[in-house]
Structures are given as C-alpha cells and as structure tokens.
Amino acid sequence: MISTAQWPGEETGEFAGATCALCHETQLNYKGKHVRIDGAPAKMFDMQAYVQALNAALRATSTDASKFDRLAARLGAASPEAKARLRERFERQAALTYEYATRSTASFWPWGPARIDALTLIKNRVTADVPGRAG
Length: 135
Description:
Layout: E1 2-3, E2 15-16, E3 25-30, E4 33-38, H1 47-63, H2 65-74, H3 80-104, H4 118-129
Helix pairs in contact: 1-2, 1-3, 3-4
C-alpha cells in the first residue's frame, strides 16, 4: 500500500506498508491446487513478532554506523546533507516503531501466528500512540 501522511508532524511522501490483506487473506493448498481466500484470517503471519523484529532492526541500524551507512547507500543518500536528513527521518520513524512495539503490541505472552486483537490495536493507535493525538 502506498499512502501519504495523515497527521501533522508525520513524514510526507510515499510509503510502502501493509494493507488489510496482511491479516485478512489466506490460501488453501490441496493436491497441487491453490485457492486464495480474500477476507479470511491469515494463519501464518505473527504480527507481534513482526513488530518486535522490525523494532530490533531499526534500533540496530540506529546504533550501528556501518548498518546506517549501508542503508543510506542503498537509498542513494550519498552527500553528508542527504545522510543527515535520512538520519533525522530514520530516528523519528524508529522512535514511533519503538513506542508501538512497547505499547500497542507488548504483552506477557507471545501471540503467535494468526493471533491479533485488531480492534484494540487500532483503538490504541488512534487514541494513544499517534503523537499529538492522545486524548
């Protein structure tokens, strides 16, 4: 999904990210046939593990200069100014992901594949997690 910023202070431009199909699409495989079912629960995706892994990767890239330099090179941020802008944007996004990983998806017990409380995650995101939107 490509989207643009919706709240003040968010990054502008295009983003790639998950759509509803991430959690609401599955596939049955039987005798070599594959049937995709839109709207069905995704049985293999572990949302909590994904968010935690993304958070760990962002934090590692934030603290390891060589990792950040590889990212900057892949994104074409070659000049010191471009790298500084990328670093600033990356740090903001990493902080938002950290908050999401430690607030919205945190629990004492791992969820595992196909387990998600989507309504609570959405409510938390809209009412508490998005900076500047807390009530």
